[in-house]
């Protein structure tokens, strides 16, 4: 199998990218899926543990509420404060403690120590209440801190120092709420109350927070003692786990998560009266990502089947279709859509490569022919512009020279110098044929020089004004546009019997990004029939004909037409495009308004 063979290249370059793309897609998909599963599991379990913490706190607060019933039971509080020692007092205390013991089904036993009478009382499930004399309260029940309430973590229940055997008493894991009963409003202790709660109450809440076969939960107090967990032997003992001592113990955040040792840990603080526990859930990563692994296994199977199919199809297609043929087809499609500058790359040394080379040579020949035709068209347009301008300059310059010569013979004054200067400016502007596109500023200067000559000719019987926005002075337009329009006023509209003649030129920017130039005068109006005919000619001007332009002298003498408004419009469209516009209107108060509208150009190809 030759490396230069198109068939070999096609097989290799199709199989390798396909395999790489599929493997990359599987990796990205697996990474995205696992990250999504991790994020979703963390968010869901944060909410779950938060609700669990609320339930645990509610349980502790319910036990705390029961411990506060000693204050609402006036008889019990009075007996505890007075310290009566008789049978009726004992019965009353038994009844109050029994009420506390039976209020919740998970209360194991209730212990009370009265400071006044130095007696301890114990109410236990399925046993007879006991009351005995003792000097000091039980050690864990003797709360001496500022807070009258504390919660003791999980421990094995005991008889609170009672030496007599208790029939049917079975020690079991419990957690205990201890309360110091105070003489209100002082903090003097009247007694000490302890309520043992079975772990079944805690288990009913915690066991709803995890999958028992796969996940684990821990309830740890502020001293690192295990309050609740799946290992019964570790209850009430320090939690010896590196993840706890490194990540959770020094952390002060109320909620968070981390990943360590192949597991994701989510934790939530449980805080309340006398309570500071941490609820932790451990989720193995293998269990968390089980769905992603199942999907990855299915994807691998599909990859095997897909690659088998791709290899078979690639080998089949390589015998029928080749890449160079497709590439050559794309070149042809681009040429068909009008892209004649398409870059055709060599396709090799085989038969398709030779065909591609011939196609490129053919496109080069076509482009060269088009380029020559384009240059010829540009040359023709340049000749058209020069012919259009040649109809204006000789006629005007001849008349002007006669005027200045006559003035020089008759008046012999220095004013001739100013007139000659103005004429020189016009001659330089008109005869400098290399510049066919000029700025509005240049065109305006040419008009001003022309006006100086006409003021002398018509003995200052008219005034000239112009108003143009400053930024528009640098805009570009074809040469010799404004002067022929102004000349029409003196040829066809100027009234020698008036001394208040006026011609005004203004230029302004339009909202569309175009500009308008307006030339108005107060001379004679254009006859309506001629005006209508002129408008029709300007709306749909015929294609530019240089021969017709040269022989257009008879048209110039038409009233109001002047030196070819059609000439002006034709040159505007030749340079500025077909959207250039020229309109002519008679003014109601007398006179003519000519309006030009063109694009605002700052750069243009010099013709």
UniProtKB/TrEMBL annotation:
<keyword id="KW-0418">Kinase</keyword>
<keyword id="KW-0808">Transferase</keyword>
<keyword id="KW-0597">Phosphoprotein</keyword>
<dbReference type="Pfam" id="PF00672">
    <property type="entry name" value="HAMP"/>
</dbReference>
<keyword id="KW-1133">Transmembrane helix</keyword>
<feature type="transmembrane region" description="Helical">
    <location>
        <begin position="300"/>
        <end position="323"/>
    </location>
</feature>
<dbReference type="Pfam" id="PF06580">
    <property type="entry name" value="His_kinase"/>
</dbReference>
<protein>
    <submittedName>
        <fullName>Histidine kinase</fullName>
    </submittedName>
</protein>
<feature type="domain" description="HAMP">
    <location>
        <begin position="319"/>
        <end position="371"/>
    </location>
</feature>
<dbReference type="InterPro" id="IPR010559">
    <property type="entry name" value="Sig_transdc_His_kin_internal"/>
</dbReference>
<keyword id="KW-0472">Membrane</keyword>
<keyword id="KW-1003">Cell membrane</keyword>
<dbReference type="InterPro" id="IPR050640">
    <property type="entry name" value="Bact_2-comp_sensor_kinase"/>
</dbReference>
<dbReference type="InterPro" id="IPR003660">
    <property type="entry name" value="HAMP_dom"/>
</dbReference>
<dbReference type="GO" id="GO:0016301">
    <property type="term" value="F:kinase activity"/>
</dbReference>
<keyword id="KW-0812">Transmembrane</keyword>
<dbReference type="InterPro" id="IPR036890">
    <property type="entry name" value="HATPase_C_sf"/>
</dbReference>
């Amino acid at each position: 199998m030759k490396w230069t063979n198109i068939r070999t290249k096609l097989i290799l370059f199709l199989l390798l990218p396909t395999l790489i793309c599929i493997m990359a897609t599987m990796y990205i998909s697996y990474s995205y899926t696992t990250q999504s599963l991790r994020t979703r599991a963390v968010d869901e379990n944060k909410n779950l543990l938060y609700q669990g913490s609320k339930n645990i706190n509610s349980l502790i607060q319910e036990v705390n509420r029961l411990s506060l019933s000693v204050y609402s039971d006036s008889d019990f509080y009075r007996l505890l404060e007075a310290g009566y020692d008789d049978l009726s007092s004992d019965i009353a205390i038994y009844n109050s403690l029994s009420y506390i013991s039976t209020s919740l089904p998970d209360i194991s036993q209730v212990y009370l120590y009265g400071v006044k009478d130095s007696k301890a009382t114990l109410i236990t499930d399925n046993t007879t209440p006991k009351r005995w004399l003792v000097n000091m309260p039980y050690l864990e029940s003797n709360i001496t801190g500022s807070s009258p309430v504390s919660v003791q973590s999980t421990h094995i229940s005991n008889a609170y120092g009672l030496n007599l055997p208790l029939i049917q008493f079975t020690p079991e894991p419990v957690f205990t709420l201890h309360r110091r009963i105070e003489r209100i409003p002082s903090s003097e202790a009247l007694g000490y109350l302890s309520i043992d709660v079975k772990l079944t109450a805690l288990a009913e809440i915690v066991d709803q927070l995890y999958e028992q076969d796969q996940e684990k939960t821990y309830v740890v107090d502020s001293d690192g003692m295990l309050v609740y967990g799946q290992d019964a032997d570790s209850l009430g003992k320090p939690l010896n786990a590196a993840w706890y001592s490194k990540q959770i113990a020094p952390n002060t955040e109320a909620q968070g998560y981390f990943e360590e040792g192949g597991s994701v840990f989510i934790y939530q603080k449980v805080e309340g009266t006398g309570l500071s526990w941490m609820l932790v859930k451990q989720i193995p990563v293998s269990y968390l990502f089980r769905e992603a692994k199942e999907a990855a296994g299915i994807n691998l199977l599909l990859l095997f089947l897909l690659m088998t199919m791709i290899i078979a199809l690639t080998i089949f297609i390589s015998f029928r279709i080749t890449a160079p043929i497709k590439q050559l087809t794309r070149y042809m499609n681009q040429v068909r859509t009008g892209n004649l500058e398409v870059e055709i790359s060599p396709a090799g040394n085989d038969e398709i490569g030779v065909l591609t080379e011939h196609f490129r040579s053919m496109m080069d020949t076509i482009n060269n022919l088009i380029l020559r035709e384009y240059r010829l068209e540009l040359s023709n347009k340049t000749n058209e512009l020069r012919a259009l301008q040649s109809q204006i300059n000789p006629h005007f310059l001849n008349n002007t020279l006669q005027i200045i010569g006559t003035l020089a013979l008759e008046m012999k004054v220095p004013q001739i110098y100013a007139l000659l200067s103005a004429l020189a400016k016009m001659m330089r502007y008109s005869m400098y044929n290399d510049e066919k596109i000029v700025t509005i500023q240049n065109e305006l200067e040419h008009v001003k020089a022309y006006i100086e000559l006409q003021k002398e000719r018509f003995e200052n019987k008219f005034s000239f004004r112009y108003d143009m926005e400053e930024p528009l002075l640098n805009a570009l337009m074809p040469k010799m546009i404004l002067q022929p329009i102004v000349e029409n006023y003196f040829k066809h509209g100027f009234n020698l019997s008036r001394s208040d003649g006026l011609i005004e030129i203004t230029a302004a920017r339009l909202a569309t990004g175009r500009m308008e130039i307006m030339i108005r005068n107060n001379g004679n109006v254009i006859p309506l029939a001629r005006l209508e005919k002129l408008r029709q000619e300007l709306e749909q001007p015929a294609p530019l004909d240089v021969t017709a332009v040269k022989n257009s002298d008879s048209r110039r003498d038409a009233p109001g037409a002047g030196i070819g408004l059609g000439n002006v419009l034709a040159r505007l469209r030749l340079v500025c495009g077909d959207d250039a516009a020229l309109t002519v209107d008679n003014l109601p108060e007398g006179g003519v308004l000519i309006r030009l509208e063109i694009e605002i150009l700052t750069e243009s190809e010099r013709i």
